[in-house]
Amino acid sequence: MTRVLHVLDHSLPMHSGYTFRTRAILKAQQAMGFEVRSITGIRHKAEGPDVEEADGLLFHRTEGKAAGPAGLREMREIGLFADSIDRLVRDWRPDVLHAHSPSLCGAAAGRVARRHGIPLVYEIRAFWEDAAVGNGTGSEGSLKYRLTRALENRVVGRADAVVTICDGLRIDLIARGVPAEKISKMPNGVDLDLFGTPRARDAALARELGLEAEGKPCPVIGFIGSFYDYEGLDDLIAAMPLLLARQPQARLLLVGGGPREEA
């Protein structure tokens, strides 16, 4: 049975889009007959044991702290994580390492993959330097931005295969000189079986939310998620007048919260 070790920033039982996508990937690989385990770095903040089971999945944790000025601190973090991955690799003997964004995970996994001759798959869910600009914690072109991008390029270059979450990231990597045949795309999706039989439409709630007109349901464009700048919700809102010109009964429903909520 093929063994796949996933290298993660954080995981279940923490709840985030990152952990839910990870869960879906791990469950899908299990269904294909793979044996999977995961290991998280020091940025996983949830309290728990060194080896934790969540939703039928096994997660190993990395202990320790990385101190020092920016840059050196991240290098120490990669070293701690690589040592932790190495111990698990020696014990469990995986056939494949599957590292997920950010590039700190990829860099740590890459060290171990080269040391043991194990193929490395690197999955990019976002360019974290651009995400930092989008959520206001970084600035484009800064030293941190350029160093983060350089590390990403290094990890991509050394990976045996790269997976992106969308065409935009794939096109960006190709523009950087990454061979197109090295990159695959695996977009987000929803497993509807997880939700069982759809519930009947709640007409009272629809009326309360203004999703009916003249007693009839309106076409609804819905968003459920975090309100970050990089989600492009401002573009969605700006497009509504154009949509209303064609479909006057259309409604926009935003569900969630985050830094852009007040905007």
From TrEMBL:
Signal peptide (residue range): none
Superkingdom per UniProt: Bacteria
Any single Pfam family the record assigns to this protein: Glyco_trans_4_4
Occurrences of domain Glycosyltransferase subfamily 4-like N-terminal (ranges): 17-189
Single GO MF annotation: glycosyltransferase activity
Name of the protein in its database record: Glycosyltransferase subfamily 4-like N-terminal domain-containing protein
Lineage of producing organism: Bacteria, Pseudomonadati, Pseudomonadota, Alphaproteobacteria, Sphingomonadales
